[in-house]
Each structure stands twice: as C-alpha cells, then as structure tokens.
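In response to the reviewer comment on reproducibility (Comment 2.3), we provide here a single inverse folding case reported in full, input and output, so that an independent group could reproduce the run without further information from us. The structure tokens appear first.
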C-alpha cells in the first residue's frame, strides 16, 4: 500500500535537479538529468515481530503506533480460552500468593534498611557514651582533688547519665529492629514457598489472562491486532517494534525512465524537505521490480523517525 502511494507520487513529483556545476558539464543534456528527486518514506532496518504466545482474544492494548517502549513493558493483555471455575479460582489463589510474597519481601527489605539505620544510631550513641564517660571521669578526679568546681563535676555527670540512657534506648530499638527482620525473614520464606507451590499448580493450566510484553526496547511501528481480535501463533505478529532508530532505510518508487541506470551501490542523499534541510549520505541497497528502490543510511536526528516523509536525491553516474 505504501509503495503504491509512493509510486503515484513519483510519477508527478520526480524532478530534475540542476546544480550550478552541472551547467558546465559537457555530458549534461535535458534528456539525461544529472539527479533524480523522489518522495520517500523512512523505515527502520531492524524490526522485531511480537507474536501472541497462545490462542485467545486480545482483551486490551496499551500502546499505540509510534510510541516508544522499553524491554519488558506490557503491550497488551490476552484472554485465553475459557477455563473451568475451579481452574480460575486456582489461578486467582496463585496470583494472591505471589502478591503476598512480594509484599512480605518489600516489608523485609524496608525492615533491613531500618535495622541498619538503628545500628548506626546505636553506634553513634555508644561513641557519645564513651566521650561523656571520659569527661565525667576527668571532672570527677579534678573535683575530688579540689581542682574543679562541683557544678562542673555535676554537669559532666548529668551529660554522662543522659548519654548512657540514650545509648541503652537506641540499643533496645536496634534489637527490636533485628527481631522484626528475623520474623519477616521467616514470613518471607513461608510466603515464597506458598507462592512457588501455587505457581506450580497454576503453571499446569493455561493462564486466564496473559500479558504480551515487549521483548526489546524500541518504537512500535505497527499494532497489527486490535482489542477484540482473535489471535494465535498462526495469525502473524501482534506488534512490530523497530529496534535501531539510527540505521534506517528510505523507500521510494522510481519512474520507469530511471530504472536503466539505478543500481545498488549508487550514492544517494536523504533529507527532510525544508529551508534548513541537511542531506544525509546513503547508498542504494536494493532496486526492486516495479521501480521500488531502498536507500540505506544512518541518522542521529530524532526528527528522522520511521514514517517520516523525506526527499531522496540520486545522482546519475556519468556515462563512461
């Protein structure tokens, strides 16, 4: 379909490009233009097809054509063939067990962080006790020898007692934090075993719902199926994802008169039409039947995205 549109456009849009240097060329003639300008469309060179993993109905589609996706991102949700009520309950229990396991693991991770912080605070408090104890012992000795006033001695003693009380309190909190970690560790182990057992039971059945995920990051080039469509391994890809957005093709339809000299390996320029157009160098990598030509090129320009309408300039080689 796209090629047919390009072919129709080529019939009316192919023009001769006359550069200043061309007027001095002895081989130049109006019947043999030095360059051919064609409308073209940018396509990715590398595309990954995402297939439906099992037979079912596409329940929801979460991405649109042109959207960037990451590896593992959910693209759509597939509803498999109907299960019995008992099987549905079993799968629901398996999901609940898995969610509980994740929640306990999350609580355990937070508890471990809290215990580590409690240990740090308790250690700082113990250091403060050591410093306060040293100052207290010094003031006590000076007071007993009649060198330091009583108020200084009593102040050092109060500071030491307060530091000692804080240290004991923080040490108790650290012990409580470690007790919580130990309890959650046991709970996490039990939750993992339960989730694993339920998963084994659930794996014996086709899932009631299954997420179709992106196998690789890139741009969604086509969302072939729509919500409500029946899909399976034989219906073809559900999505097509372009992976490398820097290695691109420009596809165009050349007029019949140019097919006599167009060939793979010829240099071509690809540019987005406009006053600030910057051409990119490419090479014709394919000349097909019906006038289709494909130019391979590389671009770091984010505007040169798949689906972009561009201008293709192919310079005719000089006659030998």
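Designed residues, in position order:
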């Amino acid at each position: 379909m796209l090629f047919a549109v390009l072919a129709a456009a080529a019939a009316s849009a192919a023009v001769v490009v006359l550069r200043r240097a061309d007027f001095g060329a002895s081989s130049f003639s109006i019947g043999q233009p030095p360059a051919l300008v064609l409308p073209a469309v940018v396509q990715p060179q590398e595309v990954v097809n995402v297939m439906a993993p099992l037979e079912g109905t596409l329940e929801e589609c979460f991405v649109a054509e042109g959207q960037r996706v990451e590896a593992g991102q959910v693209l759509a949700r597939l509803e498999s063939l109907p299960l019995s009520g008992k099987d549905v309950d079993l799968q629901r229990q398996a999901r609940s067990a898995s969610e509980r396991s994740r929640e306990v693991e999350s609580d355990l991770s937070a508890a471990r962080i809290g215990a580590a912080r409690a240990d740090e605070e308790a250690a700082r408090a113990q250091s403060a006790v050591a410093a306060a104890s040293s100052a207290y012992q010094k003031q006590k000795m000076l007071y007993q020898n009649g060198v330091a006033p009583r108020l200084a001695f009593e102040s050092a003693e109060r500071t030491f007692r307060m530091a000692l009380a804080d240290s004991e309190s923080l040490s108790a909190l650290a012990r409580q934090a470690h007790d919580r970690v130990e309890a959650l560790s046991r709970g996490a182990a039990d939750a993992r075993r339960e989730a694993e057992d339920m998963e084994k039971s659930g794996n014996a059945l086709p899932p009631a719902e299954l997420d179709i995920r992106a196998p690789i990051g890139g741009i969604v080039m086509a969302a072939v199926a729509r919500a409500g469509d029946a899909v399976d391994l034989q219906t073809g890809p559900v999505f097509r994802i372009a992976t490398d957005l820097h290695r691109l093709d420009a596809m165009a339809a050349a007029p019949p008169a140019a097919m006599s000299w167009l060939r793979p390996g010829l240099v071509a320029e690809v540019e987005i039409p406009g006053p600030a157009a910057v051409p990119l160098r490419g090479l014709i990598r394919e000349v097909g039947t019906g006038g289709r030509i494909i130019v391979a090129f590389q671009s770091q320009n984010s505007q040169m995205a798949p689906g972009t309408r561009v201008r293709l300039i192919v310079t005719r080689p000089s006659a030998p």
